Amino acid sequence: MLIKESHADVQTNVDGKQTSMRIFVFHPTIPQYPNARFPGVALFSEIYQVTGPVARFARQIAGQGYIVAAPSSYHDFTGPEALAYDVPGTDQGNEWKVKKTLQSYDEDSYKTVDYLLSLPTCTGLIGSTGMCLGGHLALRASLDPRVSACVAYFATDVHSRTLGPYKTADTSAQGPENSNHTIDKLSELKGEVAMIFGIKDTHVPDGGRDLIRQKLREAGTVFSFYEFAWAQHAFIRDELSKGRYDPAITKVCFEILLELFGRVLKTDLGQKDGKPEKIEHVC
Q: Rounded distance, CA 136 to CA 106, Å?
């Protein structure tokens, strides 16, 4: 499927500050069908904003028949340009990641979904995905009931409650009272979630992944949880991945995304009847 690339600048107003957020748009096209309609996908990037690898990931998704909207997360502090995959770029991205408030992240995702739903070529069904910081943002975006499916790649800072300003990491099962952290709001999820991790990911260790899985189960979320034995952090980044890129596992994970998005976003499922499914115990 062919792709048309563009961008849209939308205004955000949060924390007493008005800024312009650039959304990079990757839109599938079918010659001679100008009125074709597609589901939308909000794609959230790692700490470097929309880099080459993120754009290539967006094109892969768009080529399967989804309108992909990738916002620039750090518009509170800088322009839409990508940060470099080097030490200064990493340090800057990590600094802004915790300086930006949860309210600002939520405004970004809400505005991105608003933009997708405003397009006459969008069917109205929305998914979210992303990697690293973006994996967390994709999961958090799916707290919005308008998001029906989420595929989160190696989501950071979920288990430790360290996205946005914080005093200290908190990996407790209970969490603080009246917490606004993503892991403590999972009961609000209405859609289906797929969480993808590498077992060798030093950013989300065994205990962290176990906590996320536990909290999803306690929340009654419809979810799948994938852990790949040899995958490290950033294993889908096909450029400057510091030796961690694994194309074979990346291919498997993309099939996971296509299965979930295809089933939930491209199929008219109608209303869920709410009846508990009876599973027969057979061999």
A: 12
CA 260/CA 262 separation, integer angstroms: 5
Q: What is the dihedral angle through the alpha carbons of 70, 76, 78, 84, rounded to the nearest 10 degrees? A: -50
Model confidence, pTM: 0.96
Write down how long the chain is.
283
Pick the catalytic residue: 122, 132, 150, 253? 132
The candidate with the shortest Cα–Cα distance to 94, out of 74, 110, 71, is 74
What is the C-alpha to C-alpha distance for residues 27 and 130, in angstroms, rounded to an integer?
17
253 is known as an active-site residue: no
Tell me whether residue 23 is exposed, middle or buried, using C-beta atoms within 10 angstroms of its C-beta: 0 to 12, 13 to 18, 19 or more: buried
Q: Catalytic: 91?
A: no
pLDDT tens readout for residues 98-135 = 999 999 999 999 999 999 999 999 999 999 999 999 99
What's the longest Cα–Cα distance across the chain? 60
Q: Answer yes or no: 233 catalytic.
A: yes
Under DSSP, is residue 244 helix (H, G, I), strand (E, B) or coil? Answer: coil
